[in-house]
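Quality-control log, excerpt.
Job 1 of 2 completed; input and output follow.
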Amino acid sequence: MTSIIADKPSLLQTRIGGFPRAFWVLFGGTFVNRLGTMVEPFIGIYLTQARGLSLGTAGLVMAVFGIGSLVSQLVAGWLSDHVGRRATLTGGMIATAVTMIALGYSTSLPAIVAAMGVLGLVVDAYRPASQALVADLIPAHDRSRAFGLLFWAINLGFGVAMIAGGWLAQSGFLWLFWIDAVTSVIFGVLVWRAVPETRPERSREAGGFLDVLKDRLMVTYVLLTLLYTFVYLQAFTTLPLAVTGQGLPPSAYGLAMAVNGVLIVVVQPLVSHWLAKRDASATLALGMAVVAVGFAFTAFVSTTAGYAVTVAVWTLGEVITAGMAGTLVATLAPAHLRGRYSGLFGFAWSAGGLLAPLIGTRLLGLGQEALWFTVGALGLLAAIGQLAIAPAVRRRAAAQLVVPAT
């Protein structure tokens, strides 16, 4: 009896056990990096208040950042496969640190525009490399749990950064740039020193982005991700405008969004192990549907409490999707093209970041119902599409299991 009890894994082991040291280095570096992510959330305030730019000019400057982000995911995906995951991640982090300091000390408009463009190129260059690293390090059956843990680390770190960043900004914005730069260097050095290069050896199978675009299943998945991203990012683009448009103070948006951070930090670790055992496509579709319903319900609320309830609904959907998106990319991608597949996936998120405010604000101009019902419908469409491709994804996963054995 004693030996049976001793051999039985603990609850903690089932949640976080079984991962190699390199993954935990990546996890710790990601958490530290997110703790220092203070510039991006406050960049609009910085440009208008600290640098005196008009709202229109600040918007154009941030559009330059968005364009850089679009390009960055494709470039970083290529570098991850061609140069290596470790070099791409470390290089992106060091470049981010240098650019952060340059932007913090830039005073002229041309210098600010140039720094913002470069920052867009490098700040998220680590994402394709990080996703490819997880796919290389973790067996297929455990990837959703690993990606879920990274999702949790990102949200916990970012939540702390939002609070600390708002407080530090009162003492001077330059603090934000230095902290962001230092944590970026820490992340890059950690990976360089403690994470081995995992890129598969080049072979005759080596290909390019054209090979990724020929994968109709991956392209379909990316388009569905773009739809979902457009829906999800309304939380950070049109939702604050909708809240204040109801006559509520900006603090009402902050209180409602606090529900998002609390639920993710508390609930996600409790359900990640259970979700990891489910079919990734079906689980992702369920999460997308819950997110869609949560945003659609926003059309019916007008109080802080009401917005908090809708945020709670779509946050539960976000928790369900955690880890599944990266798992599907790893499932669809051949080992030698994981960086490029992750880059195309990241491109969908960057494109969604550009389209969400551009289209969302115009829908909001037509009315709350026009915005939230349209967003809800698009989210449900993405969920239905994800269910439709689920059998093909399962066949791809089964084929990948057979090839190594052969």
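Job 2 of 2 completed; input and output follow.
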Amino acid sequence: MIKSLVDEIALWLRQQGIAEQLTDTIASILLFAIFIILSGLTYFIARKILLSIIIRATRKSETQWDDVLLEKKFFGYLANLIPAYFIYIITPLVFENYPKTISSLHIILSISMVVFVILAINAFLNSIAVIYQDFSVAKSKPIKGYVQIVKILVVFIGSIIILANLFGKNPLGLIGGLGAFSAVLMLVFKDPILGFAGGIQLSVNKMLVPGDWISLPKHDIDGTVIDIALTTVKVQNFDKTISTIPTYSLITESFKNWKGMEESGGRRIKRSINLDMKSIKFCTPSMLEKFSKIEHVGEYVENRQKELEQYNLDRNIDDSVLVNGRRQTNIGVFRAYLMGYLRQLSDVHDEMPFLVRQLQPSEKGIPIEIVCFSKLMDWTQFENLQSDIFDHILAIIPEFDLRIFQNRTGEEV
């Protein structure tokens, strides 16, 4: 039928006075143009009518996957294949006597269809990544890196097929010939390969997932992981800046993941205050009377004093000399007060490690260190609690006849 159409058009052209040697060529071109118009109509039908039907169907559907496929233009890319394939089939029939023209048009159409297939597959992979985010397992096992490596493979294979069409080679033979360029390929794809290997280790060993709080002092990074891609990891720091680091850096370098702290339900407070060693002394009766009236330590002072007096009495110790026997000190009472004060705070864990201790004295005084855990995990709330605790401690130190160590200023000399 197409052959007869070409002949009819050629006959009509001869009747119009066109040279006979040109009529077949012009007839084939005109018929091909007609078929391009027809393919445009098929594209319009596929794009406008069929897509509108698919859109209505997806909106009525209760499942999410078809909506995501539509949003990522998966069906649109498939619709582009219909006119390209239609022209691909018609070309040999229209240009039957022009094999070079057929070959050239087939190469162009084949490349176009390969590109549309690549775009459709990428849209499908993007849809899978979006749908996967709704599953609970996505928080602990992200697949973005795997999706990206599949995309790279798809583009690589598609590029091989395009090159094979351009040069008229077998794709498998072309892939085999790439062995000579393996060193170049390794250099070009070094980051994706290292990133893919790093991403697998991060996932398998459960080292990192989006939402984790990590710290990398070497890179001045301290914040929340917001994205784990094939070659990079994005971290939003607490100052709202975004840091991007190579995925494999998290394997080759050490970093701190605060996830364990967050899951434990307690955030550690560890800070010390330096006291002037010259202010440390034995407690006098007047001091003990004063301390016994202080909340959080009064009962401790009375019980402790009875225990020490009984100890000295049982051993007939002459307590008129201060160095004889056992006595309470103001720093000891102060430590006991801190224990009582911290335990009564509702935002401090009393079931997790809890310690008030002395550290090694130095030329800057004797440090009293507090180690406990806050129930408040939020950074702002945690810092407020810590500040409130040490505001109180700094204010009550003089009540125990102690002084904070502080280098002299010009006004004090």
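Post-run check on job 2. Residues 2-196 form one domain.
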